[in-house]
Amino acid sequence: MADEEGAAVSVDDLAYDALLEWIADEVAPYVGEGRVADYIPALAQVSPDRFGLALATVDGRLYGVGDYRERFSLQSISKVYSLALVMARDDGRLRGRVGVEPSGNAFNSLIQLEYERGIPRNPFINAGALVVTDLLHTLTGDAAGAVLDFLRSEADDHTVTIDGAVAASEAEHGDLNLALAHFMAAYGNIENPVDVAADHYFRHCSIAMSCAETALATLFLARHGVRADGSRLLPVLGAKRVNALMMTCGAYDAAGEFAFRVGLPAKSGVGGGIVAVVPGRAALCVWSPGLDQHGNSVAGVEALDRFTTATGWSVF
Amino acid sequence: MADEEGAAVSVDDLAYDALLEWIADEVAPYVGEGRVADYIPALAQVSPDRFGLALATVDGRLYGVGDYRERFSLQSISKVYSLALVMARDDGRLRGRVGVEPSGNAFNSLIQLEYERGIPRNPFINAGALVVTDLLHTLTGDAAGAVLDFLRSEADDHTVTIDGAVAASEAEHGDLNLALAHFMAAYGNIENPVDVAADHYFRHCSIAMSCAETALATLFLARHGVRADGSRLLPVLGAKRVNALMMTCGAYDAAGEFAFRVGLPAKSGVGGGIVAVVPGRAALCVWSPGLDQHGNSVAGVEALDRFTTATGWSVF
Amino acid sequence: MADEEGAAVSVDDLAYDALLEWIADEVAPYVGEGRVADYIPALAQVSPDRFGLALATVDGRLYGVGDYRERFSLQSISKVYSLALVMARDDGRLRGRVGVEPSGNAFNSLIQLEYERGIPRNPFINAGALVVTDLLHTLTGDAAGAVLDFLRSEADDHTVTIDGAVAASEAEHGDLNLALAHFMAAYGNIENPVDVAADHYFRHCSIAMSCAETALATLFLARHGVRADGSRLLPVLGAKRVNALMMTCGAYDAAGEFAFRVGLPAKSGVGGGIVAVVPGRAALCVWSPGLDQHGNSVAGVEALDRFTTATGWSVF
Amino acid sequence: MADEEGAAVSVDDLAYDALLEWIADEVAPYVGEGRVADYIPALAQVSPDRFGLALATVDGRLYGVGDYRERFSLQSISKVYSLALVMARDDGRLRGRVGVEPSGNAFNSLIQLEYERGIPRNPFINAGALVVTDLLHTLTGDAAGAVLDFLRSEADDHTVTIDGAVAASEAEHGDLNLALAHFMAAYGNIENPVDVAADHYFRHCSIAMSCAETALATLFLARHGVRADGSRLLPVLGAKRVNALMMTCGAYDAAGEFAFRVGLPAKSGVGGGIVAVVPGRAALCVWSPGLDQHGNSVAGVEALDRFTTATGWSVF
After folding, report:
1. What is the DSSP letter of C247?
2. Which residue, A230, A258, B143, D93, is most buried by CB atoms nearer than 10 A?
């Protein structure tokens, strides 16, 4: 593996399967650590001892270890795809309604909205993702359906679906997101009825996919915007921008720490998943339900840290 | 140049000089735009029509265009070097005293310090750089001297010096920084006398260097921690971390926008300079005194945007 | 009238009618100044040239000038009565759910709720009044009805009613209040369904009364808790507490300025009304629709300022 | 004493000495509770079991109980006198530099200064008192001396003095106040050198007086502006305004709670003293060093609560 004082080992020399096995061994002590998301019953039931890791390369190979075929709830990871789908359709309209700056910290979520008159700081905080979903709904007539169709297509598996129990549970415990949505509506930044926008948001966050499927579905960002079928979803600059947003805003209030340790564009979800992009090379997805205080998978962060340290594939 | 819909042009095909000339032509309309920093007289006197751009590659070549040999005031760019010098000496001690997260926005500078009991959010906001300077002073006995020595050595020019008029002017108009320093001292996070720490901070920010010198002095971050003389300043992971911090926190309150447009680790200063790192390849420095509302050089951002778009050398 | 340098003129010497006429003359230049509330159409239609002032004394006399018999929308003034009705029934339960401190300024409304985990700072900011209404609804089964019944009884006029057009308009433009209510519900501080609590809040704010009726209905606070029929609504300490809250929190973000100028417990509403209490002596209500930047009636504040300066009846 | 459900007992019927004795008995269990201010050694040495209470009436009588002749450190109580002295000299100039609104809570002190560009919210928060002291220094050439002279004269005791040990200790631990002062200086709201303004502030806060002396020195506010020698310091409206500020901003972040419980204009200090005004009738000073979480004397608040409940002398 890489020598901290020396140059990174060439990845050409690595057997990927062996690498993933080594990572799984290394992070085994962390699996089960942290706290499984329990704000809705459907998520709280997931066993904390799960761990899966999948690597999909731009030349079409897929590697995996552990529970990498088991589906989990995407949660905030789905915000990457709704964002990409909106940018593909009407990037300009989005720019006026959502910023691109890191949010500082959790504490600032509402003050920021108030201070900046209803314009969320970036598309990955909940307020921003609600606006993205609202605009995607306006553009497609079915925001959650558009995200689902895209993911089914990229993962090449039409059994991918929305977990209805999770979606219902999100809606039932959705006061905080409804507060954000009503607040933005007061400033004219939600154009569909608040309950419609929120419903589509809750639903695309409740899509269940495996690490393997999620890595495959995220390859378009490693391919600079090109989908699995070879068609282009985003221009090169558009893919660069999504990656940049993932780097600066993708790990909740710990984006700086994540960039500092892992150094890849990534997006985490409270379901315990983290998807990461190695531009030009690969996409990874890791899953383990125990979360740290910021909402990022404990074992997941450890795994990605080891991955970039071993391969030298950090963008820095 | 690069086709937005296609792959980036190979940089191997580019004549660097021609590339820099093209960029200088492209951004000429932006030179003179924005507002020259005027909070101290010494900076306000600089002519707004200056523009320089230098590129230093890890294999030792240096390219430049425009006023790339003219010295300007580093200002916040110097925070990169004081940080690296502290990390090289006592990284652990620094971690407890300064965070690594983006600060959200200017508005939050003091509330954040208050909310987090005197721990600055990252080493590039003024409060964080004051703590870094304070620790560097403890570790070396002469913080400003340590930064100056390092820069002279890397730039291979012992005429690099602190502009005494700028430093005196900073001290005279330093109430805001003194407020930050006293506030942190109240929480025990400044260990030297406040006026000593502030003085060394004002002085290393007042170092004057040219684009050529600054690009050379920043190459150690492109070389994953290795200095001009081949010795190692930082471990590979240390250099990665400085780069990550530059990416997430280097452009004041516009770090997200900068990552979004340019996609390189970078640090700007209100003297109009911006230094950027292409890990493994090169360091760039651009200078033009007109600043946008966030304090970043207008023509400088335009130049770096064109550079990464043309070369595809963004990390994303 | 009072000599600023000397003692206040004894009110025994004043003919109240002459005093009110003098005040009306004095403030005539201010009537029409400011901006009529226009966030809902029903309020925007009110003519800005209205001015009424009524004084009700604890010994049963009523004086008035101008449009003091014309009904206007109570808006936030109704928060005084819902608060008193809850304190009369279950003061202890209220104390755990709403604070008694001034809110600082408008800017802090949401940050405060977030920082203090869903506990509104006082019962007169919208968030606090929503909690009061929610609790009144739990205690009575009909919060808006309870407020209406109380006001009809105290004003001795059973034609007092809820303006249905205003209430409907409030609900239609109620996103900000729904945001606050959902946010508090997320912290468990709204116990009825959010839309039910909000509906009763919108309705009691939409009660229409005249200055004469409002002054009469507020006399219980001047009588230290005793209602028009001689029965006690609140203990002496309870009435003192409502008066104290009106003094420190009754004039939106200008409570300090109001105390500074007028020096009486008071509550204003964006309908242009202000009710004030002279403990032990009288209650006043003034109405003029033009509002200052804080939402307080311009001519209303001027009138109350002159009233306390002339009579020396400020509590200070 | 007063019956909560009935009218207050007439104070004419009370023997004041008996009343004060009764209060001292009632609050004895609270004496020693709370925490003695320990941010500077000089204050930390005071015995927590002290309790004194003095009442001075406008007709010239003085009553006391317990340690009412023992001197303690005025601390923030001195802000009342520096404010009155500035208002007497140049009220208009003060209005542009300090607000009159409650500050919300401690948390907001710096954000408020930042948000409102260096204008403190009111004259009783430290930032505001620093501006008042700065202006008093400009107007008199010796701010601390002006406060001391005034207090000696009103208390009729020329042995009242500044405790040099406390003042030195304040200066040594003054980083937070220096931070505030430099921050305001950055916005042009401190006109003397920061260290001069801060030094005079530290010194007038370090004046030591007894409850008896403090009650006498505060009678000018009960006399609507008239000093002990019959001369007028402030116009009637000026005294009313100081009283109003004490009511809305006098008890740190618990001004609302204090108004709610006690209902008198008052100012507390971390030395354990609280001075209160009964307009037209009397001034009180209570002292007991144990502080609650807001910095107000635990036994002191209890004593004033009982005083107003028993006498019915609350302004509400």
Report:
1. H
2. A258
Q: Which of D63, D68, D81, D252 is an active site residue?
A: D252
In a domain, B153, yes or no: yes
Chain C residues within 8 A of A183 when measuring between CB atoms = 110, 175-176, 179
| Nearest chain A residue to B252, by CA | A101
Nearest to B154 by CA among B97, B50, B78: B78
D79 is catalytic: yes
Chain A residues with CB-CB distance to B254 below 8 A: 101
* Distance separating alpha carbons of residues D287 and D70, to the nearest angstrom: 9
Residue A270 among the catalytic residues: yes
B68 annotated ligand binder: no
A227: domain CATH number is 3.40.710.10
The two structure tokens encoding residue D315: 């302004």
CA distance D126 to chain B (A): 14
What gap in Å lies between CA A135 and CA C46, rounded to an integer?
Answer: 37
Residue A99 touches chain B, beta carbons under 8 Å: yes
Q: Of the listed C98, C252, C275, C301, which one is catalytic?
A: C252
Flag if C176 and A194 touch (Cβ within 8 Å).
Answer: no
CB D280 within 8 A of CB D222: yes
Identify the CA nearest to A53 among candidates A13, A26, A82, A83: A26
Q: Are strands D52-57 and D62-66 parallel, antiparallel or unpaired?
A: antiparallel
Q: Is A86 within 8 Å of chain C by CB?
A: no
The whole-model pTM stands at 0.90
**Runs of H (alpha helix) within chain A:** 16-27, 41-44, 78-95, 109-115, 126-140, 143-155, 164-172, 175-186, 194-205, 211-222, 236-249, 255-261, 298-311
Q: From CA D112, how far away is CA C256, in angstroms rounded?
A: 16
Tokens representing D173 are 């631990």
Q: How many CB atoms lie within 10 A of CB C19?
A: 21
Number of domains in chain B: 1
The reply to whether A20 falls in a domain is yes
Along the 316 residues of chain B, how does pLDDT read in single tens digits?
344 444 444 455 468 999 999 999 999 999 999 999 988 888 999 999 999 999 999 998 999 999 999 999 999 999 999 999 999 999 889 999 999 988 765 544 666 777 678 999 999 999 999 999 999 999 999 999 999 999 999 999 999 999 999 999 999 999 999 999 999 999 999 999 999 999 999 999 999 999 999 999 999 999 999 999 999 999 999 999 999 999 999 998 888 999 999 999 999 999 999 999 999 999 999 999 999 999 999 999 999 999 999 999 999 9
What is the residue-wise DSSP string for C112-164?
HHHHTTT--S-TTSHHHHHHHHHHHHHHHS-HHHHHHHHHHHHHT-TT-EE-H
- Note down the domain range covering A43: 11-311
| Nearest beta carbon to residue C179 from set A107, A115, A186 | A186
How do strand A273-278 and strand A282-287 relate by DSSP bridges?
Answer: antiparallel
Cα distance from B112 to chain D (closest Cα, Å)? 9
| Within a domain: A281 | yes
**Torsion-angle region of C281 (φ positive above 0: left; ψ -120 to 50: alpha; else: beta):** alpha
Do the domain assignments include residue B1?
Answer: no
**Which D positions 134-173 lie with beta carbon below 8 A of chain C?**
none
Judge: C316–D265 Cβ closer than 8 Å, yes or no: yes
**Which is it for strands C273-278 and B282-287: parallel, antiparallel or unpaired?**
unpaired
CA geometry: angle A179, A183, A188, nearest 5 deg: 140
Cβ separation of C248 and D244 shorter than 8 Å?
A: no
Torsion angle defined by CA atoms of residues B163, B165, B170 and B172, in that order, rounded to the nearest 10 degrees: 160
**Which among D147, D201, D226, D301 is annotated as catalytic?**
D201
Burial A33-71 (b: 16+ CB within 10 A, else e): bbebbeebebbeebebebbbbbbbbbeeebbbbbbbebb
CA distance C75 to C273: 8
